[in-house]
């Protein structure tokens, strides 16, 4: 048995994972990084792990590993969260602090990296050793799996596919550059452009479906309107798909993985989105149809991917 921890902005999830990559039991606690120090949160995390093991009658020495998936920049070798905007942590030696409470081998990874590993172990890329995951949510996270392991390279910082530039002098990104994939392919970017477009097209289905509340226009409404051939929505989705396809094709040209996995809210569109992307990507990949184009699939593990991957970081 192993434990995988997924640290989010407001919750910490702990999963007890078996050797077949199945979550046997799961516990969640709420956290508030504005009122709690990192040390307090980690203290509660250790208690959560102990509770999960105890309730499932797993002795500490029988637990093979504890893995932590954390958003932001982490240093897996040092076991330190270097900087995480979501939880406002800076230089937190998380593994050292946890080891004071628990005598179990421990590992740390970026959350998107852990999710990518999880999908190759027990999800959409099961059995594949080379895969890329892009999570299309508030931002665009990403993880690269090469030869069955998270590709990190020897230097701190890791891979951030969401911050590759697809439009030089494009939209200003939170990372300081302009034109990052994240500014075009995240769920937030999709909603932003849909709301702007809906304002210009008052008769758009997007306005009708949202009850004329721009803030209620979400991914589901955008794709629903697009399926009804609403002109504004068709334009928004078409631009979105082209931008995302450019990012995916760039990654294929660099890594040529066996599979590209899409996670996050937008991936709920499943084949409707991936079939279209697959057509667009062929045209942009080096060698076109002469090269082998990996299938683009959607996540199978969803929010559990990070926990499952984290449990197998050893
Ligand atoms: Zn960026």
Automatic annotation (TrEMBL):
Pfam families: ROK. Residues 35-62 form a coiled coil. Keywords: Coiled coil. The keyword Ubl conjugation does not apply. SUPFAM superfamilies: Actin-like ATPase domain. The keyword Acetylation does not apply. InterPro entries: ATPase_NBD, ROK. Belongs to the ROK (NagC/XylR) family. This is ROK family protein. It comes from Roseburia porci.
């Amino acid at each position: 048995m192993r434990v995988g921890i997924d640290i989010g902005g407001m919750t910490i999830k702990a999963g007890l994972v078996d050797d077949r990559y199945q979550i046997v039991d799961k516990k969640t606690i709420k956290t508030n990084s504005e009122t709690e120090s990192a040390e307090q949160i980690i203290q509660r995390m250790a208690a959560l792990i102990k509770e999960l093991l105890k309730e499932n009658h797993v002795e500490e020495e029988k637990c093979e590993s504890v893995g932590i998936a954390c958003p932001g920049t982490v240093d897996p070798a040092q076991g330190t969260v270097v900087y995480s905007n979501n939880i406002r942590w800076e230089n937190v030696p998380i593994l050292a602090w946890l080891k004071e409470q628990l005598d179990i081998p421990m590992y740390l990874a970026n959350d998107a990296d852990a999710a990518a590993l999880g999908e190759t172990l027990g999800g959409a890329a099961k059995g594949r050793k080379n895969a890329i995951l892009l999570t299309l949510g508030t931002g665009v996270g990403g993880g690269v799996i090469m030869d069955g392991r998270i590709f990190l390279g020897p230097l701190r910082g890791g891979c951030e596919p969401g911050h590759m530039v697809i439009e030089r002098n494009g939209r200003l990104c939170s990372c300081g550059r302009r034109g990052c994939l994240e500014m075009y392919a995240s769920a937030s970017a999709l909603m932003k452009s849909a709301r702007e477009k809906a304002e210009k097209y008052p008769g758009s289905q997007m306005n009708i479906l949202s009850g004329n509340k721009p803030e209620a226009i979400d991914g589901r409404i955008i794709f629903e309107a697009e399926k009804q051939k609403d002109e504004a929505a068709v334009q928004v989705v078409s631009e979105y798909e082209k931008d995302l396809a450019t990012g995916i094709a760039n990654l294929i040209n660099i890594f040529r993985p066996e599979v590209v996995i899409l996670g996050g809210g937008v991936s709920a569109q499943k084949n409707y989105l991936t079939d279209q992307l697959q057509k667009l990507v062929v045209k942009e990949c080096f060698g076109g149809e002469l090269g082998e184009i990996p299938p683009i699939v959607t996540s199978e593990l969803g929010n559990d991917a990070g926990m499952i991957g984290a449990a197998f970081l050893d």
